[in-house]
Write a structure and sequence with these properties.
heterotrimer; A alpha/beta (about 180); B alpha/beta (about 150); C mainly alpha (about 325); B: about 150 residues; Beta Polymerase, domain 2; 5-stranded mixed sheet; C: two-stranded antiparallel ribbon; binds iron/sulfur cluster
Chain lengths: ~180, ~150, ~325
């Protein structure tokens, strides 16, 4: 029996699903639910998950809540700093459709228009059980090879960038010369 | 001396809550006087858009730990073409409030050198907290119109 | 005429031992996380988590690089630490040199840290620079008491060779059973805490202040290599401690029992380094982090003072 490329991929996925290191972007109120998930009450380290200090070391990106446009720039930058394969979890209604900020002039409404999101957690704010559930779902998806957000980002890079640029400029017509390195 | 004694024209809304309505040329003087008389905490500067009158109301709020009293100094300036002098020399934190109000309402504070971009980066429209800015329409025309990423 | 057969055999044994060293290091990673979790009243990851983590990190893609120094730095560290491992007597068995010169080992121990520093410097991140500064400062701090204790041991056993010290401690004459070296072991254990970069001396890493310091720009394969280096570092440092104070774990003499002695000694050695590491973990789990000047003060004021007393004691003992 020989191992072909797919089998290696399977092994790699099996490993990476048990060792998801995350960077959590604590902008929204949803971040408040992370401490119980990390500490002894719910203990996500059972699944090998671990909070990392920098995006370079992380696999999972947790966007916890609403994103102002200025924050979106940082989010995109953090996302691009992460190494492939990388996964995004959108956390709370705010990342799905704006939640209670649905008519705010400065928060984006749908995170998946700007970066690919693998799993969404509904709720305002989601309970720790829901968060743990989303982690398990993500692991399941990784195992089956369905969590391919990062591949999408490579493939539809132009569309994502275009959307990001529209948001940065606060207008629909595309503005090419937006200072994207403002965020740096 | 308490605010009531300093400024007889002040209204007392309820205990510990004083409101002084004045004109913009007198504000500097009033705040200086209050600062010298125990009102050492500048709480905040806020702005209200009275669109029907065509005016912006600027409210300077101060607090005294000594008398436990809250003083609001309110002035009105015209919505268009008017300006206010900066008070950043009296309390340095006013500068930040002025920057915010400049960004959100478009009020010009003469003498403040940092009235640049603050929270909104690259905002091309009218200041968003003005009442004639239709947030809902803006949101529907921008964020909800940004296309989903299409996958082939 | 070179005896190729013996040479090949030696290389095979060395390769086996190095692999074993890395395997133990990876095991220690999961072990540490599990123990810490249990102390925090959590369930914690499975004990084999270290293997999964390293495998995953090597499976990651590399999106960016910071130049070839950055790419090679982690390898430099790994090579350095492996070399140190080969020079150490492990369970009384020295691989590269039969006398395991202590000065050489102390000198070699700085090399992997240097590689680490090179990589961090090449990444150009300010946090990394701060981390390197802190790492060098802590190194300076803990080496003073450590070296003093080691010099005391050299004087006592009248040899500069680690293998000699281990041999002198055979038949259960462990250094730690002498009252003076019991205190010495405590001093050295404090220094070991700094070497292992466990709390309260994890100042160079400090994830909450400077975002893991030197490792801030490392990710994917680079981080995997760095983790291997750190894991091996744990094995090397605890082995050094065990060699110095606990007789290297040698309880059966090879001459008498043959290969059985090797197996038993290895098991004892493994048990002892696990125990030493476990002690470090216990301290790690309950302490907050020192600031750099507090660490310096701790090492130079208290640790070094006690080490100096030990040194004087030994000199008096020898001269009378
Ligand atoms: S979904 Fe609710 S809890 Fe989460 S960020 Fe939005 S408003 Fe806050």
């Amino acid at each position: 029996m020989t191992l072909n490329h797919d089998d290696w991929g399977k092994v790699a996925r099996m490993m990476s699903k048990r060792s998801l290191w995350m960077v959590h972007f604590c902008t929204g109120c949803g971040a408040m639910e992370m401490p119980p998930v990390m500490t002894s009450r719910y203990d996500m380290e059972r699944f090998g998950m671990h909070a990392m200090a920098t995006p370079r070391q992380a696999d999972v990106f947790l966007v916890t809540g609403y994103l102002a446009v200025k924050t979106l720039k940082r989010v995109v930058q953090v996302y691009e700093q992460m190494r492939d394969p990388k996964y995004v979890i959108g956390f709370g209604s705010c990342t799905i459709n704006g939640g209670m900020y649905w008519d705010s002039y400065n928060t984006i409404k749908d995170l998946s228009k700007y970066i690919p999101v693998d799993v969404y957690i509904a709720g305002c704010m989601p309970r720790p059980e829901a968060i743990i559930d989303s982690f398990l779902k993500l692991m399941d998806m990784i195992d089956k090879g369905e969590a391919i957000g990062w591949k999408k980002y490579h493939k539809y890079y132009d569309q994502y960038k275009k959307n990001q640029r529209m948001a940065y400029a606060y207008r629909l017509d595309e503005v090419e010369d937006i200072k994207e390195d403002d965020a740096k | 001396m308490m605010a009531k004694e300093l400024f007889p024209e002040a209204q007392e809304l309820r205990k510990g809550r004083i409101r002084i309505e004045t004109i913009k040329d007198k504000v500097t003087e009033i705040i200086k006087k209050l600062k010298e008389n125990g009102y050492g905490h500048f709480v905040m500067l806020s702005c209200v858009d009275w669109i029907k009158e065509g005016k912006f109301e600027l409210v300077y709020q101060m607090w005294s730990y000594e008398y436990r009293e809250h003083v609001m100094i309110s002035i009105k300036i015209a919505r268009e073409g008017d300006s206010m002098v900066t008070l950043r020399d009296l309390f340095p934190q006013i500068e930040t409030y002025e920057r915010e109000i400049h960004e959100m309402f478009g009020v010009n504070f003469v003498g403040n050198p940092r009235l640049g971009e603050f929270i909104l980066e690259g905002w091309p429209h009218m200041p968003p907290m003005r009442k004639d800015f239709d947030t809902e329409k803006f949101v529907k025309e921008l964020y909800y119109k940004i296309p989903e990423v299409k996958e082939e | 005429m070179v005896d190729f057969f013996a040479l090949g055999e030696q290389i095979l044994v060395m390769a086996f031992l190095v692999t074993l060293g890395y395997a133990i290091g990876m095991f220690f990673n999961g072990f540490a996380r599990k123990i810490t979790a249990r102390i925090h009243n959590r369930v914690g990851p499975p004990i084999y988590q270290g293997y999964i983590d390293v495998f995953k990190l090597f499976g990651k893609k590399t999106n960016i690089s910071h130049g070839w120094i950055f790419d090679l730095a982690a390898l430099f560290s790994i090579a350095g630490i492996t070399l140190v491992f080969l020079f150490l007597p492990v369970a009384g068995f020295s691989m590269l040199s039969t006398d395991g010169d202590l000065f050489l080992i102390l000198y070699l121990l700085a090399i992997p840290a240097l590689g680490f520093a090179l990589g961090a410097g090449a990444s150009g991140n300010p946090n990394a620079a701060v981390g390197i500064m802190r790492a060098l400062m802590t190194m300076l701090a803990y080496e003073l008491p450590l070296v003093m204790v080691i010099v005391a041991m050299m004087v006592h056993y009248n040899t500069t060779s680690l293998a000699g010290i281990v041999a002198a401690q055979s038949n259960m004459h462990w250094a730690i059973f002498l009252p003076v070296f019991l205190i010495g072991a405590i001093v050295a254990d404090m220094a070991l805490q700094g070497m292992l970069m466990e709390k309260p001396f994890d100042i160079p890493i400090a994830p909450h202040e400077i975002a893991t310091g030197p490792m801030v720009e490392f990710g994917g394969k680079h981080l995997g290599a760095l983790m291997l280096y750190k894991m091996m570092g744990i094995v090397v440092e605890t082995t050094l401690f065990v060699d110095l104070f606990l007789g290297g774990g040698v309880i059966l003499s090879v001459a008498q029992y043959g290969w059985l002695a090797y197996v038993v000694n290895f098991l004892v050695w493994f048990g002892l380094i696990t125990f030493v590491f476990f002690l470090a973990l216990l301290i790690n789990a309950v302490f907050p982090r020192f600031r750099i000047e507090q660490a310096l003060k701790f090492y130079w004021k208290y640790d070094a003072l006690v080490a100096l007393l030990i040194l004087i004691w030994i000199f008096v003992e020898v001269s009378t």
